[in-house]
Design brief:
Spore Coat Polysaccharide Biosynthesis Protein SpsA, Chain A, alpha/beta, single chain, nine-stranded mixed β-sheet, two-stranded antiparallel sheet, globular, 13 strands, binds uridine 5'-triphosphate
Length: about 290
């Protein structure tokens, strides 16, 4: 079955980006000319997904506002003859896209956030995108690459990336079975291991495709590290029932949930930006010379 739905867990507190995120949802911080969440949505659309499910907190209404029509703005743009801008704002999200919202009342972890989307998933396979993990690509997006693997294997797929050994304690780390066809399978997964205990340096990053089997497992996953329901624990349980494949994607990842990652992403995306890239580059050149 095709992947038609994507879940965006966006109910986290965003403590690493305080005070910017005291009031503003971290997913609404801008990356050059649009909020981070819009980049994540564009990636889902690139993979043919048309149903977007946002798992949000009561305090994050602004995300919903961003994906709803702004009639006053549209009227003004129309009256002023700003047709291009009008098209731009009307196209968020493009027509034919459905946005749904579910509230996670308490921040009980990523696993719990994904579980909150269950009533909207109709027992279908689905993608999960963590907007914090922004992945740049110049050809096929990370999710497109993952859908390729999903279509081939008809099984759950997680995006993985090699990280420095001293960073493994920030990620779910996996051990692999090497596939003869070049697509590797997950053998085991461990959440945030100490560098000397990690089975590898291959880390799971914020993109997943799941078969519906993950849901009953999330339902029975007890609270783990940090008293949260860990998605990693449910993936480990899924491995006992079916194969999970890896997508060692091509692309460059930025951790936009941290100030430094957000700054790096902003600089690099600005340098690549069609309208401002060239001028920004010459500005940076001058700045560095001084
Ligand atoms: P993070 O680990 O980045 O946590 O969550 P956080 O609370 O958002 O941010 P910091 O670490 O305090 O700065 C990873 C993803 O899971 C979502 C977050 O919104 C983010 O997309 N999440 C996390 C939830 O939706 N609910 C939760 O209870 C926890």
């Amino acid at each position: 079955m095709e992947i038609n739905k994507a879940v965006f867990p966006v109910a986290g507190l965003g403590t690493r980006t305080l005070p910017a995120t005291k009031v503003l949802a971290k997913e609404m911080l801008t990356l050059v000319d649009r909020p981070i969440i819009q980049h994540a949505v564009e990636e889902a659309l690139s993979a043919g997904i048309r149903e977007l499910i946002f798992v949000t907190a009561e305090t994050k209404r602004i995300i919903r506002d961003h994906f709803q029509a702004n009639e006053r703005l549209e009227r003004e743009l129309e009256q002023r003859g700003k047709q291009e801008l009008l098209e731009l704002v009307k196209n968020i999200p493009p027509s034919g896209t459905v946005c749904r919202y579910v509230i996670q009342h308490e921040p009980l972890g990523l696993g719990h956030a994904v579980l909150c989307a269950r009533p909207l998933l109709d027992d279908e396979p689905f993608a999960v995108i963590l907007p914090d993990d922004l992945i740049y690509h110049d050809e096929r997006t990370c999710l497109q690459q993952m859908v390729d693997v999903y279509r081939e294997k008809n099984a759950s797929v997680v995006a993985v990336e090699n990280v420095a050994r001293e960073q493994v304690s920030r990620y779910g780390i996996i051990e692999t079975h090497n596939g003869v066809d070049g697509i590797n399978r997950m053998k085991s997964i461990v959440e945030k291991p100490a560098p000397d205990k990690a089975p590898s340096t291959l880390a799971v990053v914020g993109r997943y495709i799941f078969t519906p089997r993950i849901m009953p497992l999330l339902e029975t996953t007890p609270r783990g590290a940090g008293n949260e329901i860990q998605l990693t624990d449910a993936i480990a349980a899924l491995l006992g029932q079916e194969d999970v494949y890896l997508c060692e994607f091509r692309g460059r990842r930025y951790d936009c949930g941290s100030i430094l990652g957000l700054m790096k992403a902003n600089v690099e995306y600005a340098l690549r930006h069609e309208a401002v890239g060239a001028e920004f580059r010459s500005y940076l050149d001058d700045l560095i010379k001084d």
